[in-house]
Amino acid sequence: MKTRFESRWANRAAKVAIILTAAALFCAIRPDIYASTRDQVFATYQQNLVTPRVLTRYLEQTAKPKVQIGAGPNNEPGWLNTDIEPGPGQAYLDATKPLPFRDGSVYYIFSEHVVEHLFYSDGLNYFKEAHRVLAPGGKIRTVTPNLMRLLALFDPEQAGKMSHYIDRKLAWEDWERTNDPAAIIVNNEMHWFGHQFLYTPKLLRAALEQAGFTDIREYAAGETSDPTFTAVERRPRGDHQDVNAYEAMAFEATR
User: Are strands 106-112 and 91-92 parallel, antiparallel or unpaired?
Assistant: First the structure.
């Protein structure tokens, strides 16, 4: 009896070993499928297990929630930091989907260089969702590249003023240096990093108005009338704050 029992388990162990070996060989042969499967499993884990806990804990402990969209590595204390690829302590959030908050339950929403990653229609829906979840008097701040600043690079009368920005931008991004750097910068800024749509100040203001916001104000990057936004905005304190200062605009609006 003992010999038969040991033999049965030995056979099962051998089958498991064969399956694991086959799986390892398959992953070695098709690393693309392995990476895709791994990413899907991780995303499912983040969305269904980690995020509900992060959301519940934050909302239970915070009287006036503040939500950062697309936080990346910027985990700001006191904020609910979210990202479509969340890191430690962050909640999963896809800005193209309905925001996971009750109507009128959030007091601040902040995003820095996020909305340009959305198609225009998705960006407009995001602003409408932000308006829905903000409490009366709640504020949104959106920092994004200013298309008008980029188009100004083609103005020959402004060439001298733009030389510092152009040199710093090309060096920072490690982009090609050609006889028409403005064309390189504008084309790459339109399509690099997963960018989908760049706003002019006129169009961003109109999108916020269409979403229902009032008291819409434009600021330079890093400037604000509400100190709540000061600490969470990262790029004005970074190594390339001069590049960001030229190309970025910030809009704040009130629910």
Answer: unpaired
Domain with CATH 3.40.50.150 in the chain: 62-154+162-254
pTM for the structure as a whole? 0.83
**What DSSP letter does each residue of 111-173 carry, written as one string?**
EES-GGGS-HHHHHHHHHHHHHHEEEEEEEEEEEEBHHHHHGGG-GGGHHHHHHHHHHHHHHH
Which backbone phi and psi does 89 adopt, to 5 degrees?
A: 80, 5
Quick one: fold of 62-154+162-254? Answer: Rossmann fold (3.40.50)
CB atoms within 10 A of CB 149: 17
Q: Which of 51, 59, 74, 57 is nearest to 106 (CA)?
A: 59
User: For residue 190, is pLDDT > 70?
Assistant: yes
> Tens of pLDDT along 15-25?
655 765 765 66
Tell me: the pLDDT tens digits for 201-252? 999 999 999 999 999 999 999 999 999 999 999 999 988 999 999 999 999 9
